[in-house]
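sanity check this:
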Amino acid sequence: MSKLTEKVAAFCENHPTLYKTILLVENMIKKPVFSCKSCGQCVMSYNAFTCCMRCPKQLRNGPCGGTRDNGHCEVYPDRRCIWWLINERSKKLGRQGKLKKYHVPVDRRLEGTSAWINMMAGKIEGWSWGKDLNEKSE
């Protein structure tokens, strides 16, 4: 994280009206467009812009192993497994390599908070402004 983004995040967090406005805008975009579940630690950029928290088991690193042969969820057989959908979208977008990143378990304390501000504040493990810390420099 840069000092500037940390200062911006701290300023937003110290001004509740501003923070709530940013959270409102984030939710107005992410919920209808991506079916975001507001975990506060967004990893959609790795998962073909699909919220993996839509999985009934809330798995962040791939399917549970109970995915049916037809690609449907074992918990909700009438629905596609979200990880099946993520894989299909990744193929179409040419982003399957992004699926190899391991994501730390969800920190439940961040649920319902702004992932944008959490990212700028350095609260999301592995994130740096504009670059994933686990990616190798070229």
